[in-house]
């Protein structure tokens, strides 16, 4: 809550932390069941419908990550870079607790807006164009919607 005003909702990062806490307290079970809405404070409440929507979203993200890792035949053993605005404010422990990030995601580092940073580097150093082209030539498109690997992970990742 900013400036002691009444809350109007819960942000994405707050939702992840709230659900992680309610899982620890047993208010939400591993299937996502929650008997009734839970009020964190005036204006910031969590309903069973909110939990189900988060469950679907986190399952899709987690299944996407796992599908890409399996397809590329790599793992999280060395380092995981988390990019983007959402990731910048994400509590890594809470993300792991709800299953958004796999438990084996090691050395997670939040790097912020990687797309902007990469574009800036390319503009400032023309020699990087050849390196970018090499990466582009090795890139493979993975269609998650038609992937049986994704479908399998999506179903199993619904659990918290």
Tell me about this structure:
With 160 residues, the chain is mainly alpha-helical. The chain contains seven helices and four strands. The strands form two sheets. A two-stranded antiparallel ribbon has the order 1-2. A hairpin with a 2-residue loop joins strand 1 and strand 2. It is globular and about 55 Å long. The mean pLDDT is 89.
Which sheet architecture does the biggest sheet show?
2 strands, antiparallel
Helicity level:
40-55%
Number of H/I helices: 7
Helix/strand/pairing category: mainly alpha
Poorly predicted runs: none
Arrangement of strands in the largest sheet: 1-2
Q: Shape, please? A: globular
The number of strands is: 4
Q: Could you tell me the strand content as a percent range?
A: 5-15%
Query: Average pLDDT across residues?
Result: 89
The helix/strand order is HEEHEHHEHHH
Outline:
With 160 residues, this protein is mainly α. It has 7 helices and 4 strands; from the N terminus they run H-E-E-H-E-H-H-E-H-H-H. 51% of the residues lie in helices and 10% in strands.
Name the descriptors.
single chain; 160 residues; mainly alpha; two-stranded antiparallel sheet; two-stranded parallel ribbon; globular
Question: How are the SSEs ordered, and which strands pair?
Answer:
Elements: H1 12-25, E1 38-41, E2 44-46, H2 48-72, E3 80-83, H3 85-88, H4 92-98, E4 108-112, H5 114-124, H6 128-138, H7 148-156
Parallel strand pairs: 3-4
Antiparallel strand pairs: 1-2
Helix pairs in contact: 1-4, 2-7
């Amino acid at each position: 809550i900013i400036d002691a005003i009444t809350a109007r909702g819960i942000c994405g990062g707050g939702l992840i932390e709230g659900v992680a806490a309610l899982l620890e307290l047993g208010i939400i079970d591993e299937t996502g069941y929650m008997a009734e809405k839970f009020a964190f404070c005036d204006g910031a409440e969590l309903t069973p419908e909110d939990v189900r929507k988060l469950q679907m979203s986190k399952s899709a993200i987690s299944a996407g990550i796992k599908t890409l890792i399996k397809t590329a035949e790599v793992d999280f053993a060395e380092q995981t870079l988390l990019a983007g605005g959402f990731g910048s404010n994400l509590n890594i422990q809470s993300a792991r607790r709800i299953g958004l990030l796999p438990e084996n995601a090691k050395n997670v580092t939040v790097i912020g807006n990687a797309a902007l940073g990469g574009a800036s580097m390319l503009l400032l150093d023309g020699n990087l164009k050849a390196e970018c082209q090499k990466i582009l030539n090795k890139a493979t498109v993975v269609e998650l919607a038609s992937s049986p690997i994704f479908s399998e992970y999506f179903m199993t990742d619904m659990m918290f």
